[in-house]
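INFO batch 0412 | record 1 of 1 | parsing
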Amino acid sequence: MHEVLDNPLERHNQDTPGAAHSGLSADPKWIAPTVALVSAIFIYLQTFVLPATPRLATGDQGIYLHDATRMLNGEMIYRDYDHFTLPGTDVLYVALFQGFGVRAWIPQLILVILGLALVWLVLSISKKLMHGRAAYLPALLFVTLPFSSYLDATHHWYSLVAILGALAAMLEERTCARLACAGTLLGVATFFTQSMALVTVGFALFLRWEGIQSKRTWKTVLHQEVSLLAGFLGTISACLVYFVWKVGFTRIVYYTVIFVAKYYPADWFNNWRVYLAGRPQLHDWNTWLDIPAFGLIHLIVPFFYILFPIIVRRGETLPRELRSRLMLVYVTGVVLFLTVASAPAYTRLYVVSAPALILIVWYLDSSSDTSRPRTSRLPLRLAWTLVILMMAARPLATQFRWRQILDLPTGRTAFFDRLPYEKCKWLALRTQPSDYFFGDHLIAFALGLRNAGPVPFLRPTEYTRPEEVAAVMQGLENHQVRFVSWYIGLEHERYNRVHPEGDHLAPMRLYLKEHYHVAQTFSNGDQIWERNP
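INFO prediction complete | emitting tokens
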């Protein structure tokens, strides 16, 4: 059996100068729940306009919300509508819609719950590596910077909760029971995002590394890895068996593996070109609060993952258990980064940043001995200052910025951007819930409209396949759809001009010109086309 220290931090404090300076050896029990509660209130004040009006669910979450309404109405993923991730997010939202109805507040309240869960998990992991005030800093940095800059209840966050849960289960000790639990959580994470299966490989490699370091027998390591793998395979198999029965294994593989490999990278924001794109704009004050997150995360991910082994190797001798725990957090972070490395958008980097934040705070805390110059403690003080400023500024910016309120079929909703407000208001006056519509999944969800095609939107790249274009046109014809949303990027996107061979929308453009006319053009050039009488 491997060595388990009763309190590895005490050993760490004895062996590593400066590690004990950050606070009391035993924190009062009320601090952690208070940090979690404050974090939840902090997120609520960014997702709801007081007292209880939810923001419009913008971003990628709109795809999953709209797809979940399709599943709620009896449609089946991969058969009646196309998508490239495993069905976990759709299933979760279907369950919530069945229990509470299709309501605008659901994704926003889920963000509060997600933030609370992630803060608690990051805090639990941090407290196994350090104590005192520094143990609370990674969780607070995470919730005030990357999480608050990406308030989008999409599959990435659900997977991260399960991954951090698996990490927390393994961090204290690696018994077979804990490894089976971790494997189960990895299976849940994969049910939301298929690339998370790679974390299972990372954990298995870690177990092998630790076995070599601790001189365990190969049989002991094998038992550990079997426990991990059994939990993973059992869970993901149970989650997918219904969908395999309904649509077939081949279709699931096509959309979640083949499509992702061949066609998903066709859009520039789904390949390496997206790195450093989407920078906050100085001329738009609403994005100023995102500048610290964008700068910090791009500095530490992936660069801190590259530097951390060198830092640990050059540092003082660490106790075996603490070194193993640090390596486990490090492996988790590296593998999470690998899952997004092919398309490192800032939003995806935000999601995989939690392990890096934990490691960098641990390093700064262990390096800032009170006997050293005051400048050695400066980074931690700056980080605490940033946390306090963000805790105050973000809720105030949300509550006092421009907004408009509409009463919609999904409930009273706050709009913070003029364009979706104008679109939603215009269509709300001309449609009824359950009307067929195509081209804007956000508006479709907010107004309770049904999609006439197998995809939520079209792209002028290989991402949208010719057969999907044909199916959309067939749906428009079969249901005599009155309104189609056509956004300006379909005609004037730079990538489309560089690679016109990937644009399969010519038949759709011709169909619109023959059967529709432009009914409304919005300030950014987006249009609503209405079917001819």
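INFO post-check: The radius of gyration is 25 Å.
INFO record closed
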